[in-house]
Amino acid sequence: MQINSDWKFKTESELRVAMQNFYNNLLGDEGAVKNCFSPDYVQVADGKTLNFEEFLKHLQILKRDTKEMHFEVLDAAYTQSTLADRHIVRIKKNDDQPMKVEVLAFYKIYNGKIIGVNEVSRLIQGEISDRDIGSRTE
Prior knowledge:
Elements: H1 12-26, H2 30-36, E1 37-45, E2 48-51, H3 52-65, E3 66-78, E4 82-93, E5 98-110, E6 113-125
């Protein structure tokens, strides 16, 4: 999947579907992630900064600690260099405990690649010790 300027012509509904597919399909595929994200990528999630290698580690930790994750994009907007969305992540942890997290994400795009994101998340359901799920690397 390529992030490109054609996205600015999508309706909000089409953009929400594209973002849901991005989250639900791409993030589990490291090769696709490397194709979509710049090696200079920087993520700031709830004040914690991750570089690209730490982000890949974060994705591995999510796979390790969860049975299921499903993303529902509620709002989405795209400009020439910024992609923003609000989404809900429904998670089933390995111990079958459910989690629900609301995320506000603002991506920076350059030459069709994601170069950065600023995220703020809110734990709606789950254990307080899992509040770091959006930036966990260990």
